[in-house]
Amino acid sequence: MKAESGFTLLEVMIALAIFAVLAASVLSASQFVVQQSGTLQERLFATWLADNQLNELRLQAPPAKGRQQQNLRFDQREWRLEQIVTQASDPRLLKVEIVVRLGNGGPPLHHASTWVRALNE
After folding, report:
1. Contact (Cβ atoms closer than 8 angstroms) between residue 81 and residue 66
2. Given CA atoms 85, 87, 92, 93 in this order, what sign does their dihedral have?
3. Do residues 81 and 49 make contact, with C-beta atoms less than 8 angstroms apart?
4. Within a domain: residue 1?
5. How confident is the model over 40-74, as pLDDT tens digits?
């Protein structure tokens, strides 16, 4: 009689356990990558919104001092831009800070600042 060759039940179970551990690790790593890419996309859009707002301010008349909030819709999401205008140490300049968050609040995704000319009085 010829001896049959093949895997024993124990060998198959060990191989399946190793495969399951590897599959769980890959799934966990891919979930982390997807989450990080979503966060990166939010930060990129927040940077664009802040830069656009600062460039618009540079092209317009000097903004009024104080704090203002603006809600925008971009990329099918609501965004909140907070603009803080203060007098700089040089009386010819105003310091403008922009903080961008998602519309539902949460932590700031981007913070940008610049100086614009003040009104000549």
Report:
1. no
2. negative
3. yes
4. no
5. 999 999 999 999 999 988 888 888 899 999 999 98
Predicted confidence band at 120 (pLDDT cuts at 50, 70, 90)?
low
Tokens 């203060």 label which residue?
86
Asked whether 79 and 71 are in contact (CB, 8 A), the reply is: yes
Q: How many distinct helices (H) and strands (E) make up the chain? A: 1, 4
d(CA 76, CA 95): 31
- Structural domain boundaries, residue 59: 10-117
pTM summary value: 0.70
Question: The tokens 């664009």 sit on which residue?
Answer: 48
Beta strands in the chain (DSSP E): 66-74, 77-87, 93-102, 105-117
Burial 19-49 (b: 16+ CB within 10 A, else e): eeeeeeeeeeeeeeeeeeeeeeebeebbeeb
CATH number of the CATH domain containing 33: 3.30.1300.30
